[in-house]
Amino acid sequence: MILVTGAGGNVGSNVVRQLLEEGEKVRVITRNPSGQAFPDQVEVATGDLTRPETLTEALSGIERAFLFPVLRGVDGFLDVAERAGLRHLVMLSSISVTWSVPGWVGEAHLRLERSVQASGLPWTFVRPDGFTTNDLVWASQIIDGEVVRGRYGDAATAPVDPRDIAAVAVRSLLDGRTGEGYSVTGPQSLTQIDRLGIIAEAIGRPLRWQEQSEDWFRDEMARLGMPAQGIDDYVDALTARVGKTAEVLPTVEHVTGRPPFTYAQWVADHTAAFGTAST
Ligand SMILES: NC(=O)c1ccc[n+]([C@@H]2O[C@H](COP(=O)([O-])OP(=O)(O)OC[C@H]3O[C@@H](n4cnc5c(N)ncnc54)[C@H](OP(=O)(O)O)[C@@H]3O)[C@@H](O)[C@H]2O)c1
Where would I find the NAD(P)-binding domain in this sequence (predicted)? Predict the structure, then answer.
């Protein structure tokens, strides 16, 4: 039995689906079992990763687990997992842990990685670049018109499809790839403006990027709950990416044996979210 946490999320939902396709037995943990629909074959346990007293039953009989990185800390989960006899833990992390200046986000994930390493449990870390799904934040502006407001339109990343992040995690779980830290990117370096162009082509109508001020961006990030230090570090990271080509890594193909999904493929599967030419 494999435990999947974060199973309603972008990555975890794909981990669940892919494990079921491989014929594995899956249990998920959620804080709100009535709030979401999981596949019928899945065992659903109620639990909160930040409250270890809720996890004992959910971890009983579990050999391997996919761990969502709750930034408040995973020590309680690790204690219960160790007592339950877990043999392999694959944790979602962030590519920023590998940067020379990890920033607030990278430091937060590094603390979790260190906790996992200190636990003595066999581990694998899956460290993605920015997710394709982050761009769903543009959906309401795209549905409403042709202007998308943002900052650092010329900053490039190699956006990675959560299906590929999940696929690396699933191969790690099933092939027993312990002691590995996999940095995972998509197959292309794309700026935000490039990505908007790909969405425009897919939905069949023009879209225009409207560059906003740094103050606007800072206010937006604060509104989303990012602390001041996180905002400073994010501004620095995006500024450093303007006009640069993002690193593209071969990890997905190396680990899974197939190429990663392109951004255009991801968009093609999400045109409904962005509206179509007829909306
Ligand atoms: N977005 C990016 O570009 C990016 C890049 C690198 C790394 N990351 C990492 O990936 C994470 C986001 O992954 P995602 O998009 O797959 O997540 P997501 O879609 O935001 O889903 C979050 C999931 O985590 C579960 N969860 C959250 N807190 C929990 C808790 N205390 N106890 C139990 N379950 C909890 C939720 O489950 P319930 O609500 O059902 O309990 C939900 O299923 C980020 O937080 C970051 O660590 C993101």
Answer: 6-174
pLDDT band of residue 276 (cuts 50, 70, 90) is confident
- Residue 171 sits at the vertex; the CA angle it makes with 169 and 174, to the nearest 5 degrees, is 110
Ligand 1 close to Cβ of residue 11 (< 6 A): yes
Please report, for residues 43, 85, 130, 234, the alpha-carbon distance to residue 184 in angstroms, rounded to integers and kept in the order given. Answer: 29, 29, 9, 19
Residue 105's CATH number: 3.40.50.720
Q: Is 74 in the pocket of ligand 1 (CB under 6 A)?
A: no
**Distance (Å) of CA 107 to CA 70, 110, 137, 243:** 13, 5, 25, 25
- Residue 66: strand, helix, or coil: strand
| pLDDT digits 0-9 by tens, 50-63 | 999 999 999 999 99
The model's pLDDT over 169-202, given as tens digits with 9 standing for 90+, comes to 999 999 999 999 999 999 999 999 999 999 999 9
Establish if 224 belongs to a structural domain. Answer: no
Write the CB contacts of 21 (distance below 8 Å, at least 6 apart in sequence). Answer: none
Q: Give φ, ψ of 146 to 5 degrees.
A: -115, 0
CA pair distance 219, 141, nearest whole angstrom:
18
68 CA distance to ligand 1 middle (Å): 6
pLDDT per position as a tens digit, 229-263: 999 999 999 999 999 999 999 999 999 999 999 99
Residue 270 counted as domain residue? no
Token pair of 8 as six digits: 């309603």
**C-alpha–C-alpha distance, residues 176 and 269, integer Å:** 31
Structure tokens at 114: 């260190």
Pocket residue to mutate for ligand 1, from 14, 15, 67, 68, most atoms within 8 A of Cβ: 68
Q: Judge whether 61 lies within some domain.
A: yes
The token pair at 245 is 């080509």
Note down the domain range covering 18.
2-128+162-184+248-257
